[in-house]
Design brief:
Layout: H1 9-25, H2 29-60, H3 62-74, H4 79-96, H5 107-128, H6 153-173, H7 185-194, H8 196-212, H9 214-218, H10 222-242, H11 255-262, H12 265-292, H13 300-312, E1 320-326, E2 333-339, E3 345-350
Antiparallel strand pairs: 1-2, 2-3
Length: 351
């Protein structure tokens, strides 16, 4: 839907927001653009902090996940069974660390990009329409916000900041990679992004794109380029706070502290697994001994009563059920103890 000026409705709403901010604050247009960029960045910053917090926690689990992967690779079973086991243990490890793959989704960037694009597009429309004040409420050498920067200072400054931000982001992604041959797609992508060769190629591509679009940016109205430059500066500040030395000022822990906190989670998980396996063996052993007492005839109701009593006393947690089966070889009936969910035979006594 378009408004009377031919703008999309969302652009028209953004233009109204800019005009309202300008009129209510009484600021010149250059200061209004700075204020708007700050408001957009501040609104999405909590989501960026949330994503970075959980990304750091997930990153600190890398050594523990490698230990789980090694543990599963040494366990018996087919490749498919090992993959399923690793996924279950990985999920349990993430649960114990209060982390999740869903929590590291860059919600902040996903929210900021459409807001920034809409705001920039609305500023562009205001400059093309020469809204009152845009031709005279600039600053320093670019008083006319509707005209391109005559000295190309803003486009060059913006390009330099974008290149620096790209450098810092890719440098923060570099860390020792895993040598494991059994990796999920997410692990492979993360490892690739930590490969120095991939990082170098990313730098070349992103910085090359920034240089290639410079001629286009230099011909945009200075109001648009100024808003973009302010946003890039705020992004640099955000990087300093989230992945730089400013982390401690906003409550983000150092990565060495997170690694120390995560250390031992795999050992705790292995102990619980061993304890669960031993407990299951004891439960099956008690059931087996009871069935041995009825070796002359299959008294199914006796076994069922025993299982109910064991559950009531909380000595049986496995989903076991008893049923009578016939031996194909001897033709005799026997009591079989099977898992209720899968029907897999766990133990039996023939009569």
């Amino acid at each position: 839907m378009n408004d009377e000026n031919g703008d999309f409705r969302i652009i028209a709403i953004a233009k109204s927001a800019w005009i309202s901010l300008h009129e209510k604050t009484g600021l010149p247009w250059w200061a209004t653009l700075v204020t708007g960029a700050f408001v957009i960045r501040a609104a999405t910053f909590p989501l960026c902090w949330y994503g970075q917090y959980h990304a750091d926690k997930l990153s600190s689990l890398a050594p523990e996940l490698n230990r789980v992967r090694s543990y599963v690779s040494r366990s018996p079973g087919t490749s498919l069974q090992k993959i399923r086991t690793f996924r279950r243990l990985r999920q349990e490890l993430l649960k114990r660390s209060d982390s999740s793959s869903l929590k590291v989704i860059p919600y902040g960037k996903l929210a900021h990009v459409p807001l920034f694009v809409t705001a920039a597009a609305s500023v562009r429309r205001l400059t093309f329409q020469k809204y009152p004040g845009f031709e005279s409420e600039g600053i320093s050498w670019f008083q006319d916000l509707t005209a391109p920067d005559p000295w190309y200072i803003l486009p060059m400054l913006n390009s330099a900041i974008l290149i620096a931000n790209t450098e810092n982001s890719l440098k923060a992604a570099e860390s020792p990679s895993s040598n494991s041959s059994k990796q999920s797609l997410q692990d492979i992508v993360a490892t690739s992004l930590r490969d120095p060769r991939v990082v170098d190629w990313c730098k070349i591509i992103l910085q090359g794109v920034t240089i290639l679009v410079f001629p286009l940016v230099s011909h945009l109205p200075s109001g648009v380029v100024f808003f973009w430059t302010v946003n890039s500066l705020l992004n640099s500040l955000q990087q300093f706070l989230l992945i730089g030395r400013g982390r401690r000022y906003i409550g983000l822990q150092e990565r060495t502290e997170l690694f120390a906190q995560s250390k031992g989670l795999a050992d705790s998980l292995f102990r619980d697994i061993d304890s669960s396996v031993e407990d299951a063996r004891l439960q099956l052993s008690r059931v087996q001994k009871f069935i041995m007492e009825y070796s002359k005839e299959p008294l199914l109701y006796k076994v069922e009563e025993f299982l109910r009593n064991e559950r009531r006393l909380k000595r049986l947690t496995l989903p076991l059920v008893a049923e009578i089966r016939k031996d194909e070889t001897t033709g005799k009936n026997y009591i079989a103890i099977v898992m209720e969910s899968s029907g897999e035979k766990q133990g039996s006594d023939k009569t």
